[in-house]
Amino acid sequence: MKTVFSFSSSSSSLQEEQVKGSDAAACPQQRPLSAGRRKNLEFEPLSTTALILEDRPANLPAKSQEETQRHKLEYEEMVAGAKRRELKEAQKKKRQMKERLRQEESISHAMVIWNNDILPHWDTMKGTRRVRELWWQGLPPSVRGRVWSLAIGNELNITPELYEIFLSRAKEKWRSYSETSSVNDSESDCGASLADRESSLDLIKLDISRTFPSLFIFQKGGPYHDLLHSVLGAYTCYRPDIGYVQGMSFIAAVLILNLEEAEAFITFANLLNKPCQMAFFRVDHELMLKYFAAFEVFFEENLPRLFSHFQTNSLTPDLYLIDWIFTLYSKSLPLDVACRVWDVFCRDGEESLFRTGLGILRLYEDVLLQMDFIHIAQFLTRLPEDLPAHTLFTAMASTHMVSRNRRWAQVSGRAERRLTAASPPPHRRPTAAPPPRLLAAFICSVTGLRIYKVRDEISALQKVKILPRLFVLFQVKNVLFLVKISHYT
User: Fold this and answer.
1) Structural domains in the chain, sorted by start
2) Using H for helix, E for strand and C for coil, what is the string for 33-92?
3) Where are the transmembrane segments (predicted)?
4) Helix 335-348 and helix 129-137: axis angle, to 10°?
5) Residue 304 CA to chain centroid, in angstroms?
6) Mean pLDDT confidence for 43-62
């Protein structure tokens, strides 16, 4: 084995022994010539590529002068190409290091400003132009959690002691759940509300296992698994009317990465109490339609070609906005980019969430214009993992959130009034689920699964709840889906 690995570096010495031992008399001038040539090399050949400069063994025809010269040129070209690649790689690393140092200096400088000038005078400084500009550039990680907490506030007046109370209730509920786990799903569903079912231990555990799986810190055995489980469990006891809804784990996880446990729970509860989040997590159809209608107004104004393309393909905002809003982009975007989006969300409120959506559409407009319904839905539910923050925020900066001298709040308010006036009576609202074939096609477009893997499961759904007018909530293999049915009914 040792001889095999050292062959390339000792090939010339092996050749010398062969020549000296058997054919030295036949080729008296060959070895001195080879040695003289090798002395002229700038360095000792370290790989088999250098063998092209060696003379052939004595029992083979000797190289011609032209062949020797050609091999020499080929070898020199190989060396030159390797040097060019090494130089290019070194220059790239140098640029990356320089950019990293610049970012570190910028973060360090911003951290001093936030700690010394802004946070001690939060109430008077938070609305100034200087602070808003610093906010847009991204919060330093060391102050991010504190700024989020201050910006979101604590209108619910939750205390750490209150968190401990609800956490104790959650633990007691889980113990009771474990003791009565013999009760089957059909029996528990008969007397349980939707919120009760969604706050079950199984669903929370399932969602936690799928929360930032690449980080390996929230899964079972990870350092933040129990902490995330505690925050989500405490919230389901604090707000049983809402319970646990798929997507909450991502929001709670981002807060846990930036705040202490009790503070993360307080911020989490207050964040979900905001009007936009409450509308989505309670599946308030009328309010959700209001947000979609307002989004389309700015969509058409900022990206008319793409808006027309989406309408041609019957692609409505709910097909991609629901997932984005439910997780505040923490599932759809790289974590560092999502934190930048959260920074702006804490500064500008719900408007920034829809501005971010328009920024994503603007960023990939040329790509989306070439796609059909299925491919657009798949693309928007699985955005590229290498999406850089600066390109997204450049696209967001080019997005104007003013329509006919009306800002977001005015447009969304007008959309709500218009929808309320046009709302059909309850007896005319569709209540039937879509056919399995069409539902399977839609799920495949969203999840990326093969249609033959989904269709059979839909025909034997474990849990189905028809929601008035717009959505059907159902479960396939312990995974909850919230699907729009207005296209299919």
Assistant:
1) 2-79 (no CATH), 160-426 (1.10.472.80), 427-489 (no CATH)
2) HHHHHHHCCCCCCCCHHHHHHCCCCCCCCCCCHHHHHHHHHHHHHHHHHHHHHHHHHHHH
3) none
4) 160
5) 27
6) 65
Compute the mean pLDDT over every residue in the chain, rounded to the nearest whole number: 77
Torsion of CA 461, 465, 470, 475, to 10 degrees: -40
- The two tokens of residue 340 are 């930048």
Q: Tens digit of pLDDT for each residue in 233-280?
A: 999 999 988 888 888 999 999 999 999 999 999 999 999 999 999 999
CA 114, CA 117: separation in Å to the nearest integer?
A: 6
**pLDDT value for 426:** 43
Contact 185, 475 (CB under 8 A): no
pLDDT at 461 over 80: no
Mean pLDDT of all residues in 425-439: 43
Please determine, for residue 130, whether its predicted confidence score (pLDDT) is greater than 70: yes
Euclidean distance between CA atoms 380 and 79, whole angstroms: 45
Kindly report the backbone phi and psi dihedral angles of residue 117, in degrees, each rounded to the nearest multiple of 5, phi listed first.
Answer: -110, -35
What is the pTM assigned to this prediction? Answer: 0.70
Closest by Cα among 169, 177, 180, 153 to 236 = 169
- Helices assigned H by DSSP within 129-274: 129-137, 141-152, 160-179, 185-191, 194-198, 201-209, 225-238, 248-258, 261-272
Which helix (H) or strand (E) segment is 452 a member of? helix 451-458
Q: Are 86 and 105 in contact (CB under 8 A)?
A: no
Q: Look at residue 423 in the predicted model and tell me its pLDDT.
A: 52
> Among the residues of 114-184, which ranges form H helices?
122-125, 129-137, 141-152, 160-179
- The answer to which of 171-185, 201-215, 251-265 has the lowest mean pLDDT is 171-185
